Amino acid sequence: MEILGQVKTSFIDYPGKICTVLFTGGCNFRCGYCHNPDLVNKTKNVMDPDEIFKHLNKRKKYLDGVCISGGEPTLNGDLADFIAEIKSMGFLVKLDSNGTNPILFKKLLDEDIIDYIAMDVKAPLSQYQKVVGASVDIRKIEESIDIIKHSHISYEFRTTVHKEIIKEEDLVDIAQSILNAKRFCIQNFKRSGVLLDDNKAYTPFAQNELNKMKQSLASYVQEVIVR
C-alpha cells in the first residue's frame, strides 16, 4: 500500500466514530477542484506501514476505526489485504472511493471486511468525463452504485458542489441515478490551499442555496445531508 499521508485522529471523517485517516497516492481522475494534488501526483513520500500499524496499536483504546481515503484507494492491488489486517486488529474500516472499481467493492463486501463506503458521485452520468477530466466507464460507476445500494453495510453517496460546474439541476440528476439511496451528502466546495487546477475559479454556494438544494432532493433519497 502506498500511504502518503495520515490524520492521526479525526472526529469528522467517519460519521459517529473517532478514526485515523490514511491517504493513498495516485488517482485515475483529474478533477480540477481537487484539494489533494500532492496525493494525486504522488509528490509526497510513502509512509512506512510498520509505523502506521504501531500507531494503531497504541491508539486501540481511543480509536473506533480507520478511514482509507485518497487519491483513489482502489488503485492499490493490495488494498483488500491491507483492510483485512486492519480489521484483524478490531477496527472498523471506512473506504472513500470514486466508484471505478466495482469488482473490488464486491470482494470487500463478500469477505465482510468493510463497514462503511463513501462513494463520490462526481456529476450527472452524462457529464462525468467533463467534470473529472479523464475517460470514464460509466457502466462501472452505475455498477458500483448498485452494489453499494444493495449492500448490508452503512454507506453514503456524496457530491461536491460549486457554481462553475455542479448546479442544483445537476444534483437532481445525480439523485435520480442513486434513487432511494440511504444517504446523499452535498459537500460545499471549500478552498483549502492549492488545487489540482489552480488556474480556475471555483465558487461555493451560500447556506440558503444549499438548504434549497437539500429540499429539492428530499423526495429522491432517504436522507440528505449538507456539509
Strand content: 15-25%
Shape, principal axes of CA atoms: globular
**Number of helices, counting only DSSP H or I runs of 4 residues or more:** 8
Give me the CATH architecture, please: Alpha-Beta Barrel
- The fold-level CATH name is TIM Barrel
Total domain count: 1
Uncertain stretches of 5 or more adjacent residues: none
E-strand count: 8
Assign the CATH superfamily.
Aldolase class I
Reading the helices and strands in chain order gives EEHHEHEHEHHEHEHE
Which CATH class applies here? Alpha Beta
What's the overall average pLDDT, rounded? 94
Strand order of the largest sheet: 1-2-3-4-5-6-7-8
Distance N terminus to C terminus? 30 Å
Which structural class fits the helix and strand makeup?
alpha/beta
Question: Would you mind describing this structure in some detail?
Answer:
This protein has 227 residues and is an alpha/beta fold. It has a single domain (3-226), classed as Aldolase class I (TIM Barrel), CATH 3.20.20.70. The protein is built from eight helices and eight strands; from the N terminus they run E-E-H-H-E-H-E-H-E-H-H-E-H-E-H-E. Strands 1-2-3-4-5-6-7-8 form an eight-stranded mixed β-sheet, with helices on one face. Helix 4 runs parallel beside helix 6. The longest helix is centred in the middle third of the chain and has 12 residues, at 138-149. The chain is globular, with a radius of gyration of 17 Å. The two termini are 30 Å apart. The model has no long low-confidence stretch (mean pLDDT 94).
